[in-house]
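Exercise 3.2. Students should predict the tertiary structure of the chain below and write it as structure tokens, then compare their answer with the key that follows.

Predict this chain's 3D structure.
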Amino acid sequence: MSAVFMEFKGISDSTPNEAWRLERVAGHHYSAAADFALEHLKGSGKCLVAGSPLFELYELAPRYEITYVDFREPPVNGFRFIQADACAIPLEDESFDALSSTCLICHIGLGRYGDPQRLAGDQVALKEFWRVLKPGAVAALMLGPVADINASQQVGSAHRVYTFEHARRIVEHAGFGIMTSAVWDTRGARWRRPDEPINIDPALFPDYLSMALRKD
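Answer key:
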């Protein structure tokens, strides 16, 4: 499956030295994503955390043996860390019981964090997630911004903005079944009701899409 994005020119956000999120911030979409992961990842065993804020690792640690993968090297100790591109994870097939990733998919392959630019990097990373999970494993992902727009958009090197339908297609194409989806309303700091329209202007107060996925 090829990715077709409308692209906004002249917008760039290269931030390889961006500060790491070490603590929760009330009402922030990262905190909402961590709550979503805790709600849906209730098992045990080994969990891969890919590119998420660091506080998410600590909150999942009582349940799982954590491996953290990121292209940058985080200021964190006490966890197994692998510095790698999420499009080429150097881990064996079917080696994890769960996976969590917050706002990595919308960035991967755009070069924002110093990672290699890669066409359809989001789709490649999703297939890598599927590969390293055991059959029956669950993944909790906040894919990134979502909007009621005509087509998904690439906002320079900053991020992708998905339509819900496009997001559904790429996760299913990677092999996942969708268990549930939820949209975080940034302006209202709450999860939107299923019947509410998603923000139609992704440049202002973007909404964020989370999905719980199963590898069947």
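Discussion points: Residues 1-14 have pLDDT under 50 and may be disordered. Helices lie at 29-40, 54-60, 121-132, 164-173.
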